[in-house]
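hey so i finaly got around to running the thing on Cell envelope-related transcriptional attenuator domain-containing protein from Ruthenibacterium lactatiformans. pasting the sequence first so u can double check i didnt mess up the copy paste, my clipboard has been acting weird all day
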Amino acid sequence: MSRPQENREIDITRARPKKGAAPAPQGSQPVPHGVGEHAGQQDAQKQHGTARASSARPGGAKAHAGAGGQAGTRPAGARGKRTGRRRAGIAALAVLLVLAALAGGAYLYVDSLIDRSDLGSFDDVSSPVSTSAEPSIVPPDFAGVRNLLVLGLDYEAEGPVARDEKHPNTDMILYVRLDGNAHSMTMLQIPRDVFVGEAGGAAGKINGILAKNVDIGDGNGLGAVKTYIETNFGLPIDDYVTIDMDALTEMVDAFGGVEVYVPQNMRYYNEKTGALEGELLQGWRTLLGGDCEFFLRYRQGLPRSDLDRLVMQRQFYAGLFRRLKTASVGDIVKLLPVAQKYIKTDISTLELMSIAIEVSGMDSADISIGRLPVYGSGQLYAGEHSVVVTAKEETAALLNEYFRPADDPIAAADIGTPEWPTTGGAASAEMSTMGDVEAVGAEEPRK
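ok and heres what it spat out for the C-alpha cells, dont ask me to read them lol
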C-alpha cells in the first residue's frame, strides 16, 4: 500500500523515564548430556584500536595479532559447516530493530512490511488502518497484553534437511509477551531442536514445522507454527514478525556497530587442522556485522553448546537495546531499507508505532528473557538427528509464572510435545532481566 509523501509529526512524548538499578546476574545450570552440536564460525571484523582480520572462507584462512593493548588473533571467518552459517540468536534483534524503526517515525516505510509474507498468515489478526482523507499517524496508548511470535528464517540449502526460499527453517523462535499495564516485555527463547516428531518433518524438530506446511492445503506455514505453539504450550499468539537471517550483518553495519561485553575469551579452532581461525577476547567490544555473527554463533568453547550460547547471546541483546535507546533519526533512516528488505509482519502501522513507543520507554529491569527448559536426548531421531526434549514440569512452572494469566495455569500434562528418551537433568529456563545482563562487565572499563 502506498501513501502520499508529506511531512508529518509523530508524537513520541509518552515514553517513560528510566527507573533504578537492576539486580545482579544469575549463574549457569549443569549441562544435560546430548544437548548441542559443533558448528562453523563466520567472518568478523574489529574496530576501536584492534587489527582487522582477514576473511577465512573455504580455501584458506589467516589470522592477525590483536592490537589495542590485547594480544591475540582477531575474529576471522571459519571454514566450518555452512549449515550453521545463519543460526545466530537474533530473534530479539528482529523485535528491537522493528520497534526502533517505528519509534523513529518510519511511517511510510512501515507500510511495506505489512502482510507481505508468502509463508502463510495468522487468520485471526486484523490490521486496521485509517482510511480518512488525512489520516492521523499519532498512535494510541498501548494497553493490555500483546503476544508476538518472532521467527528467524534460515534458507540454508545444505545440511541434513535442505531448505530453499519457499521452505525455510525457523531456526530462531522467540515468543514475546508485551504487557501495557505492567509496562514490561517478557521473551521466551524456544530452542530450534525441540522435539516435535512428525509435526517437524524429516528431522522431527520444531524449526521444521513451517517448511513442512508451506505446501499443505493453502500453504499456511506460519499458521501451522502458531497453532502448534498455542496448542502444545498454551501460549496465545496475536501477531508475527519474521526476519531473514541474512539480515544480521547488514543491519548491524547500518547501525554503525553495537557495543557488547564479551563475557569470556572466544576461540574457534579448525576441527581438521587445529589452527586458530577466529577469536574474540573478553571485555567490551564494538562489534560490526561480521563480529556479531561470530559472537552469536560461537559455541565451540561452551560446555553446554547451544544452551550456553543462548545465554551468552543476551549480552548482544543488551548492547542492542542500549544502542537503540540512543538512536538518532539519522540512525533509524539508515536501518529502514534493511528492515524493508528483510523483515515482514502482520501488525498494522499504527499498532506497531504504539508498541514502539511502549517499548522505547521500558527500563531494562522490566525486560526479561528466558529459555524453554529442556532435556538432552538419549536417542537420535530417525537415526541421525539430535534433538532436545521439553522438560514439561519445569516448562509448566515457567509459563505459569511469566507468560500465562494467574487464574489460568497450565499443567505439565497439558504440554503436548511428544515423549522421547532423555538423558541427564533438565536445563532450567535461566530467566534474567535485561538489567541482570547489563550488570555483567559493568565495572570493567570501556575500550
